[in-house]
Amino acid sequence: MPFKKTDLVGYAFVAPMLLGIAVFFLYPMLASFDLSFRNANGAADSARNLNNYAWIVRDPNFWSAVFNTIYMAFLSVVTGLVFPFVLASLINSVRWGKGLFKSVFFLPNIVSVVGTAILFTYIFYPTEQGLMNSIIGWIGFDEIGWFSDPRYSKYSIVLMGLWGSLGYNTIIFLAGLQSVPRDLYEAAEVDGANPVQKWWYITIPYLRAIFVFIIVIGTIGSMKRFGDVWMIGGNAGNPNGSLLTIVLYIYRNAFEAYQIGIGSAAAFLLFVIIMIFSLLNLRIFGKNNVD
After folding, report:
1. SS3 of residue 88 by DSSP
2. Distance from C-alpha of 14 to C-alpha of 17, rounded to nearest angstrom
3. Cβ neighbours of residue 172 under 8 Å, at least 6 residues apart?
4. Which domains are present in the chain?
5. Within the chain, where are the H helices?
6. Is the link from the previous residue into 239 a cis peptide, with omega within 30 of 0?
7. pLDDT class for 1, splitting at 50, 70, 90?
């Protein structure tokens, strides 16, 4: 297609955005990639080599962070699919108050990660002063160290993240449910389908694209988990390193130990991990989407 002078107007409009992307995203990314091959400590660096990557793959803390990140990401994606979808189905079935329900369940999404962490610190306080321990103590169970016991800390973080993302995912599912053609349900009723069969054979397949979207976005967001685990477990990812994630590992090396090269190398390993999981999700769940 030949170039036209009138195209210059379009390029002029998009030039500021492209310049901003190049200055604030592309250049820092390339500079960080270059630092990943250097023994950089923030003040000086050495020649390019693979020492940073070799050091990381031999570091047991890195593999512990990878396991914690993937484990919590899996739980977050599963709960972020099941609960919002069921909740959206329930809201969609009511005849009044849909706007109220949407507003109430979406409110936690606008709360910052810091505010959410502070709130759940009181809810999951390890003694009977905490809300959850007060409830289970009233029922007759022993107190649980939600954030202080390595056996429960990951699940507590996942629950805290679910509370924050529940409303957003519910709104996305609700929008998809309201777009399903009514004649599909009417035809299914004529064929004698019950509500569960209509939900399984019509609703879920029709929302396949939304499921894929939430799985991919949820995986990426969970793999980048940092703020909540840092607020709860500190720089070490306590208790006992059970909340150490890859991003927290990057932060510790780059901004506490001042090993910028190691932090940059870990960041690009995280990029590769996220890319692999995203491609796998699209490969497994992205087939035969309903148009």
Report:
1. helix
2. 5
3. 84, 210, 213, 214
4. 1-35 (no CATH), 51-116+145-285 (1.10.3720.10)
5. 7-21, 27-35, 51-57, 60-93, 98-106, 113-123, 131-139, 150-178, 182-190, 195-198, 204-206, 208-223, 227-233, 246-251, 260-285
6. yes
7. low
Is 73 in contact with 223 (CB distance < 8 Å)? yes
The C-alpha atoms of residue 149 and residue 198 are separated, in whole angstroms, by: 43
Task: Give the count of beta carbons closer than 10 Å to the beta carbon of residue 236.
Answer: 13
**Residues for the chain: how many in total?**
291
* Contact assessment for residue 109 and residue 167, using Cβ atoms and an 8 Å cutoff: yes
pTM beyond 0.85: yes
CA-based nearest residue to 84, from 111, 105, 107, 109: 105
Which residue's structure tokens are 């195209």? Answer: 7
**Strand, helix or coil for residue 252:** helix
- 263, 255 in Cβ contact below 8 A? yes
Cβ-based neighbours of 240, under 8 Å, separated by 6 or more:
150
Distances in whole angstroms, Cα of residue 85 to Cα of each of 46, 92, 263: 52, 10, 37
Quickly tell me which residue has 């004529």 as its tokens: 190
pLDDT in tens, 159-176: 999 998 999 999 999 999
CA distance 227 to 82: 24
Find all residues with CB under 8 Å of 94, minimum gap 6, and list them. 101
